[in-house]
Amino acid sequence: MANVLSGIQSSGQLTIGNYIGALRNYTKLQHEHDCYFMVVDLHSVTLPQDPATLRENIESAVALFIAAGIDTSKAAVFLQSHVPAHAELGWLMTTLTYMGELERMTQFKDKSAGKDSIGAGLFTYPSLMAADILLYKATMVPVGDDQKQHLELTRDLANRFNNRFGETFPIPQPYTPEVGARIMSLDDASKKMSKSSTNPASFILMLDEPAVIRKKISRAVTDSGREVKYDPQNKPEVSNLMSIYSECSNMSIADIEAKYEGQGYGPFKKDLAEVVVALLEPIQQRYREIRESGEIAKILREGAEKASATANATLREVKEKMGFIV
Ligand code: ATP
Ligand code: LTN
Question: N or C, which end of the chain has less CB nearby within 10 Å?
Answer without folding.
Answer: N
